[in-house]
Amino acid sequence: MVNFMLKIAADLENLTNLQPQGGCDDPSFPYLFKLKCGRCGELSQEETCVSLGDTVSLLQGKGTTNLVQKCKFCMREGTVTMIPGKGRPLTQEDCEEGKFAPLMLFDCRGYEPVGFVFADGWKVESLEGTKFEGIDLSGDEFAEYDEKGECPVMISNLRSTFEPVK
What we know:
This protein is mainly beta. It is 4% helix and 55% strand.
């Protein structure tokens, strides 16, 4: 069993608190990434989508998980279970210090998550308190004007990493 923490970073101009629309533990937010098989090393061709609100029963034992999938190459079955309560928004302070913010923890058995894809469903607020919601980051940036703060706001240079956690 290996846990992987998804961490994100970006350049936030006059913005703070970048996170999924419903917060870091949003049950409907889709996390998209590829899976690398722990046995044969095969990388999935397409991104896999997992969300906290989608669960399936485990075939063996008790409990549920967010994804059960077989490797198309070696046929080994693996699971991905999301562990809520471990993430927080990316802040202006994180950006100034060049830090990544933890977003979601994944318990991966038989797989390693690779290459998180930024997509639709984000929110952020300006340093003056204006809220921007329903942001689509699939184009790798967001630019708008904050009327309240009378300044441009921008999200750019999106980055992510999956770090193993003991």
